[in-house]
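Hi X.,

You mentioned you wanted examples for the new student's onboarding notes, showing what a folding record looks like when two proteins sit in one file. Here is a clean example. The first protein comes first, with its sequence line followed by its structure tokens.
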Amino acid sequence: MKVDGKLGDPVAADFTGAGFSLIPGVLQAYKVSAADLATYAAPVPEPETVALLGAGLGLLGWTACRRQRGV
């Protein structure tokens, strides 16, 4: 049987996972070696995400200000 790392491939019975670490800040479903982790760059949020966050916080601030004034 050829094992090429694709989904559904069996894990060898003697596999221990020694020398591998989990990627920080990512759903802990993948394991990588320490050498691969050295070149890892954390994901950067897209501008739309930041804009939506800003709009939501602005709306919350506007609502709170409006409630304090009793309008």
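Then the second protein repeats the pattern, sequence line and then tokens:
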Amino acid sequence: MFLSGTDNNTHIAYQVAEVAGQPCGRSFEEAFIYANAKWLVDNHAKLRASGSKFKGKDATALGTDAYEVAPHKVDFALDLISAPGWVTPKYIADGLRWLALRTAL
């Protein structure tokens, strides 16, 4: 079941709450934080360029940190490439599943 809209060859994946009752991220950074709050609390020091931006100790507090990370998107992305163990936000996983199914046809 996809969490977004599909019409023929077009699929729109958008941010959704990672857990029922949790806020929905409004940007990639915020969605990533909600999907990976515990991982970020435990591993932010491993993120060389953007780790100092994460000061919160839970998903709600980390959500405000997304605004500090957003201007540094490239640094954040490069940090994530070299730091395994995080999970993909639901809306991105949804879009990738749809794309994989479309290319398999």
